[in-house]
Amino acid sequence: MNVQHGLDRLMKKGYKYTKKREDILRYFNQENRYWSAKDLLRSMRASHESISFDTIYRNLYLFVQLDILEVTDLNGEKHFRIKCDKHHHHFICLMCGITKEINLCPIHDVIKELPHYFIEDHKFEVYGTCPTCKSA
Amino acid sequence: MNVQHGLDRLMKKGYKYTKKREDILRYFNQENRYWSAKDLLRSMRASHESISFDTIYRNLYLFVQLDILEVTDLNGEKHFRIKCDKHHHHFICLMCGITKEINLCPIHDVIKELPHYFIEDHKFEVYGTCPTCKSA
DNA sequence: TTTTATAATCGTAATCATTCTTATTTACAA
DNA sequence: TTGTAAATAAGAATGATTACGATTATAAAA
């Protein structure tokens, strides 16, 4: 999901193009990791001095709703990242924040274990230290 | 982990017995589910009218630290439940909040998949509707 | 190009969960 | 019974997030 794909999806749904929206997508495309709303605000202020919290949050959740970003709770704060094309989960480095795909999803086995339950969603996250931070 | 076990562990570590602490443990022992700090406060006010937020949070995190309770983030709010004796994960019903053990943990396969990573923790939660709520 | 409708944004106040601070009370060991 | 550290109450402070009225910008129509 690159910047252009995100913008295309946005406009196809009738939302308007703005430079801020493009820059938000650029921000998330530059690195494979989660960022908080505050992280994004800090970066955006460099090029858009008067951008407001409202714009940050409104667009973050718009992108989540359009399946362009995904969101998770990391110690009580919402964090966002580019949505991956195929379903998978992430290892998250607690030191640098970088994420790495885990190509292993246990949900199908769980469905078998819970025959009378209706399963809507699941979350699987692994936390620790990445090789780079470990050797530093 | 019943009420008496929790209190024993508490006192063995040098913390004092209080009726409030006992009642907090009773609250979590009565049902197999997560409750928020606010849920607990509401219930505690029935028998301890002037109990404060501070007492609620201080004891919740004390119990987490002593491995008597476990904590998770459910849509931006911390929720707590009795810690299970053996490691496992939970299905959480989005309608009634009840939880059910999942006897399946994928972490060992993940460790194999990430040889140069140091893994400290992981979270696996499954969300949906339990059989009781589904048929209602 | 100009006009128009409405989507998007700004600036700031409000809200909500959580944490902190200070004074007071309580548990329990001596 | 008394002394002392732990525990608590009350409420202020904090920090993330949401809400809101006024203003500005986008995109489509004239």
TrEMBL record, chains A, B:
Localization, UniProt: Cytoplasm
Give the organism, scientific name: Pontibacillus litoralis JSM 072002
InterPro entries (alphabetical):
FUR (IPR002481), Fur_C (IPR043135), WH-like_DNA-bd_sf (IPR036388), WH_DNA-bd_sf (IPR036390)
What processes in GO biological process is this protein linked to? Answer: negative regulation of DNA-templated transcription; regulation of secondary metabolite biosynthetic process
Cofactor names: Zn(2+); Mn(2+); Fe(2+)
**To which protein family does this belong?**
Belongs to the Fur family.
Where is it predominantly found?
A: cytoplasm
Specify the protein name: Fur family transcriptional regulator
Q: How is the cofactor bound?
A: Binds 1 zinc ion per subunit. Binds 1 Mn(2+) or Fe(2+) ion per subunit.
Q: Where does Fe cation bind?
A: H87, H122
Q: Which GO terms describe its molecular function?
A: DNA-binding transcription factor activity; transcription cis-regulatory region binding; zinc ion binding
Q: Name one GO cellular component term.
A: cytoplasm
Q: Does the keyword Nucleotide-binding apply?
A: no
